[in-house]
Design brief:
eight-stranded mixed β-sheet, alpha+beta, Rossmann fold, 2 domains, BirA Bifunctional Protein, domain 2, single chain, binds histidyl-adenosine monophosphate
Length: 435
C-alpha cells in the first residue's frame, strides 16, 4: 500500500469541515479590517528564504525542502509566506497604491521538522501582513483582530505573549552583552549554540535543548537594551492594548525563530496543544522589504501566521469540553419507497437544494429499512419517506432521525417546515462524525 509521506496527512471529514469553518470565519474577520487575499506560489527561489528568514535560523539550516530545477536553479517549497508576500510587495511596487497594503493568505507550508502531534512537515497557515506603516496603532489593530478571531471560536483562553526585539540600531549593544554573558557558559552548551554565539547570538535564545534552558534563563534580556524609539513604540502598543482591555503577558525572552523581526514580537499559546503550544506567531519586520528592494520609507511591516492545524486541535478540544456535537451528515435524506419514484425524488431533492438545504438521495429500489439505517448512520437530520401515494396525496412523511418522531408535511410547505425544524432539532454525530 502506498501511504502518505511521514509528517503529511490527508484531512478527512469531519476534521476538514473544521478547517473550512476556520477559513470562512477568518475571511469574514479579515474583511472587517479591510484585508484582501494574496496567493503566492508554493515554491520560490531558495535565496528568497535564505535572505529573509535568515541563514542561521533552524528553518533555513535544517528544515527547508530545497531542490534543483532542471536548469540547476535552486528552488524551495515555502516554509512560511511572509518572505513571499514581501517579495510580491516589492515586485509589484504595491507601496505606490494609496493606503497601506493589507493582505492575507491561507495555504500549506513545508518544513522538515520531526513530526508529532501539532507538528507536521506539510502544515497549514492562515496569515496576514500589513505593509507601509510603522505606527504602533497598526500593531494594536492586528492584535485586536486576532483577539476577535479567537473570540469568534470561543478560544478566549489563548494567552498573548508579547515582547519587543528592538531594531538594528539597538541590537549591536545587546549582541555584545549576550556574547559576553555566553563566553563562560558556552562550553556547557550544545554545538548549535556554540556556533550561533559566533554567527547570530540572538538565535541562542531559540535553542530547544532542555539542558541549555537554565543557562538561557540567566542571559541578559533585550528589553534592557532597547533604544528610546523602540522603547516608546513598545510602550504605545502596550498602552493601546491596555485601553482596549486586551490581556497579554510580557515575555522578555520571546525572540521568535526568524531573523526578520524588529520591535513587536508576539505569540498566542494555548493549553490544549501540549508541547507544540504556539497557536500563532508574528511580529514587526521593518527592514524586510528594503532588503528585497523596496525604498526604506515603504519597508515597514507587521504580520502573523496562525498554525491552522493547531487552531483546529484547540477548537476540537474546546468543543469536546463543551460537549458540542458537530452535525455529520446532510440536512435531509430522501428515501425513495420503490423504484418508480426515482425521478420524482431527484426533482424533490433539486427543489430542496434550491431552497438551501443539503440533501442526499438514497438509491431507488433499495429496501426502506436499509435506507433509513444508512440515513441514521451518516448523521442525516431528517429522512423523507417518499412513495407513489405520498406524491399523489401531496403529503410527505418526515422522520426526525435523532428522536424517531415522524409526521406528514404538506409538499408545498416542505422546505419551510424543514428549515424551521432544523434549527430546533437535536443533532446526532452519526458514525462518520465520531472521532
Ligand atoms: P512561525 O512562528 O514560524 O512564524 O509559524 C507560525 C505558526 O505556524 C506557529 O505558531 C505554529 O502554530 C505554526 N507552525 C509552524 N511550524 C509548524 C509545523 N511544523 N506544524 C504545524 N504548525 C506549525 C511564521 O511562519 C511567520 N511567517 C509569521 C509571521 C507573519 N510573522 C510576520 N508575519
Amino acid at each position: 500500500m502506498i501511504r502518505a509521506i511521514k509528517g503529511t496527512r490527508d484531512l478527512l471529514p469531519p476534521e476538514s469541515g473544521l478547517f473550512e469553518e476556520v477559513e470562512t470565519v477568518a475571511r469574514e474577520v479579515f474583511r472587517l479590517y479591510n484585508f484582501a487575499e494574496i496567493r503566492t506560489p508554493i515554491f520560490e527561489t531558495t535565496e528568497l528564504f535564505a535572505r529573509s528568514v535568515g541563514e542561521e535560523t533552524d528553518i533555513v539550516t535544517k528544515e527547508m525542502y530545497t531542490f534543483q530545477d532542471r536548469d540547476e536553479s535552486s528552488l524551495t517549497l515555502r516554509p512560511e509566506a511572509t518572505a513571499s508576500v514581501a517579495r510580491a510587495y516589492v515586485e509589484h511596487r504595491l507601496w505606490e497604491k494609496p493606503g497601506l497594503t493589507r493582505l492575507y493568505y491561507m495555504g500549506p507550508m513545508f518544513r522538515r521538522e520531526r513530526p508529532q502531534k501539532g507538528r507536521y512537515r506539510q502544515f497549514y497557515q492562515i496569515g496576514a501582513e500589513v505593509m507601509g506603516s510603522g505606527a504602533p496603532q497598526v500593531d494594536f489593530e492586528l492584535l485586536e483582530m486576532l483577539t476577535l478571531l479567537l473570540q469568534r471560536f470561543g478560544l478566549t483562553d489563548a494567552e498573548l505573549l508579547l515582547n519587543s526585539v528592538g531594531c538594528p540600531q539597538c541590537r549591536p549593544a545587546y549582541h555584545e552583552a549576550l556574547r559576553k554573558a555566553l563566553e563562560p557558559r558556552l562550553p556547557r552548551m550544545c554545538a548549535d549554540c556554540q556556533r550561533r554565539a559566533q554567527t547570530n547570538p540572538l538565535r541562542v535564545l531559540d535553542c530547544k535543548v532542555p539542558e541549555d534552558q537554565p543557562i538561557i534563563a540567566e542571559l541578559p534580556v533585550l528589553k534592557d537594551y532597547l533604544d528610546l524609539g523602540c522603547r516608546e513604540h513598545f510602550q504605545q502598543v502596550c498602552q493601546l492594548l491596555d485601553s482596549a482591555g486586551i490581556r497579554y503577558r510580557l515575555e522578555p525572552r520571546l525572540v521568535r525563530g526568524l531573523d526578520y523581526y524588529t520591535r513587536t514580537a508576539f505569540e498566542f499559546v494555548h493549553g490544549a496543544l501540549g508541547s507544540q503550544n504556539s497557536l500563532l506567531g508574528g511580529g514587526r519586520y521593518d527592514g524586510l522589504a528594503q532588503v528585497l528592494g523596496a525604498p526604506a520609507q515603504a519597508s515597514q511591516g507587521i504580520g502573523f501566521a496562525i498554525g491552522e492545524d493547531r487552531f483546529v486541535l484547540a477548537l476540537q478540544a474546546a468543543r469536546e469540553k463543551a460537549g458540542a456535537i458537530v452535525p455529520a451528515g446532510s440536512d435531509v435524506f430522501i428515501a425513495p419507497v420503490g423504484a418508480e419514484v426515482q425521478s420524482a425524488c431527484l426533482a424533490l431533492a433539486r427543489e430542496l437544494r434550491a431552497a438551501g438545504l443539503s440533501v442526499e438521495t438514497g438509491e431507488a429500489g433499495r429496501k426502506l429499512g436499509k435506507l433509513l439505517e444508512l440515513a441514521s448512520r451518516t448523521g442525516a437530520r431528517f429522512a423523507l419517506l417518499v412513495g407513489e401515494q405520498d406524491l399523489s396525496g401531496n403529503q410527505i412523511p418526515v422522520k426526525q432521525l435523532a428522536t424517531g418522531h415522524q409526521q406528514s408535511v404538506e409538499r408545498a410547505g416542505l422546505s419551510d417546515y424543514l428549515k424551521q425544524a432544523l434549527t430546533a432539532a437535536p443533532v446526532t454525530a452519526g458514525e462518520v462524525g465520531k472521532s
